[in-house]
Design a protein that fits this description.
globular, 23 strands, binds zinc ion, 8-stranded parallel sheet, 28 helices, binds glutamine, 5-stranded parallel sheet, alpha/beta
Length: about 750
Amino acid sequence: MNTSIIGYPRIGNLRELKFASEKYFRGEITAAELEQTAKEIRLHNLNLQKNSGLDFIPSNDFSFYDGVLDTAFLLNAVPKRYTALGLPSLDTYFAAARGYQGKKGDVKALAMKKWYNTNYHYMVPEIDDTTDIKLVGTKPFDLFSEALENGVKTKPVVIGAYTFLKLARYTGTKAAADFVDSAAAAYSELLRRFGELGAEWVQLDEPSLVKDMTTEDTALFVSLYEKILANKYGVKVLLQTYFGDVRDCYNEICELNFDGIGLDLVEGKKSLELVRANGFPKDKVLFAGVVNGKNIWRNNYGHTTFAVLELKKYVQSIVLNTSCSLIHVPCTLANETKLPESYKKHFAYAEEKLGELAELKIIFDSEDPIETKEYRLNAALHSEPRSGGNPAVREKVAQLTDSDFVRLPEFAEREKIQKARFDMPLFPTTTIGSFPQTAEVKANRSAFRKGEITEAEYEQFIKEKIAECVALQEEIGLDVLVHGEFERNDMVEYFGECLNGYIFTEKAWVQSYGTRCVKPPVVWGDISRAKPMTVRWSKYAQSLTDKPMKGMLTGPVTILNWSFPREDISLKESAFQIALAIREEVLDLEANGISIIQVDEAALREKLPLRKSDWREDYLDWAIPAFRYVHSGVRPETQIHTHMCYSEFADIIKDIDDMDADVITFEASRSDLTILDVLKENNFRTEVGPGVYDIHSPRVPSKEEIKTAINKMTERIPVSKLWVNPDCGLKTRGNEETVPSLKNLVAAAKEARNENS
Ligand code: GLN
Ligand code: ZN
């Protein structure tokens, strides 16, 4: 039995690529030095994979920024505004990735989007009517040759033509179907070149095949590959899918002239069923994605063995594979020096997953798999009783009934009660929570963590910052104030640290986009609130002002979506456990005099299943109730806010309304407030604060600009439902922009108030 992986993390064990790239951006090292770091990472990864005994080692999975962007450069699909800058090629590439402002011009970066249902972001290729798709890049060939020189004939990996054309944004009149011939010719040329270089296999990644496909989509896919595979130049072609199953095109895939088909058996709910029902072509190899590329738990060899033995009934030739690229997990456990062995033995990061593939190979190559040492040790590990169980929490979740998810009285009644209580002006102004995390705020936290200052000193500083922040907001004239979140490093980590059941890693970085990495906490056991998490700071902030002080919490779905979840219980169960804890905090805040509480659900949209038919059952049916449970116990006069970081929720607008918050704030400025029409059409009931300016950009919006945004809002939404606020938290901005921006925001709201009363 052979083994394979789809791709390996490229950031380096200690984020070497990030640090080198950022140095390069600051002009501190040369392009050659950056290239050198990149090469060291690649060769380290290559040797690791070779030494692990892996049979199919990928190349071209390396990227300086993003693999989709690499493909755009490979295929000559780069907007002219970048090439016209006349920069060296690496800098042209970074200009498209990050934007460029300098002697040669001023251009914004390409758009960035979430990569399917992950927290990784890709750069959206832009195709216009003049785009001439053809093979112009050499990176896949260079990296194949580099590995070959180092003794490994790799399996080069390239994003496939269908996925590339589906992900691109078309800015002219042409659409994907207009590029079939040119794209097919480019991929055909790619195969020819690999044939010349002596490659045996080429892997074409086609994750878009796991999404819902229309008949046009299927036709596009088939016509591309009929052309591409017409001549394979002696190279075997692996069609690699991941993040789901290919139920809409399984038969087409089987009929096309591929040599290998990669199916995801972890997230692909129907993968096994498809093979059982339709069989598998005798002339093809199945790359079976059995090792989870998205989570950090050790593989369960019992489950894997069952799946593989089942597949063997239908498939002649199987290669053991990961379910997706390993870029979604951290690099190596070797740097987790503080994590106790009792936890660590349950973990497998990328490097350890190579070890698992090697063990699985031994297991399947033996006469009696179940009797191998590897199998038995793994079975013992998985049958160990797990620490961190909390029967009381389990019991509480089990006892939840429908009425627990319903807040009474209903919305309209509460709205009246709250209007009377707060007596807010029209267009009440507020912010999303955090104020600038200045260098001194970060320095204070880091000094405390290193033990350089006492807890008392640390807290004294936070108190001063809160007082300053409250005074500033009063001076600016905001209506609903916040404490500023100076005590928080991150909106999930902060809460995770106050919850039983969470554990934290030291070096488990995962690429989020470009040079940005995140370190998701791990849900280990049953979750419960260890102690009040925010009450003290909120209460203190409220004591400084007569205006309402918003309590500020992260919601259960977002906390879960930005963590590595457990696999021994359902996501629903974990979400409800977290909801229990957050609800306690909500009630505690209320009991301590906090009249408005915001529960952020920044990441709610992110994990919506890729297929519409899975939306309800697999996600919304528990995600929305988890949120509802958090606030269903508060009094009618307590106002619940929520916040989302994007406005791409047109397709689940009813569900968002059904969260039954009193007010929702969200990003709208970058999408030109198009969401407003959707709110109007759907008679959106919740009061809304569509962000009136973009906080991601370091500029100061003028009063007029903000007023224009408010006018657009009043054209579509009843004024009694409107709030005025920035589109997200201000923590990444400086005070220089924040203060004048908020002053303009308040001035614009006052102007709107005068005009509308
Ligand atoms: N309350 C958080 C903040 O202001 C919300 C952040 C977010 O939406 N990502 O920082
Ligand atoms: Zn946000």
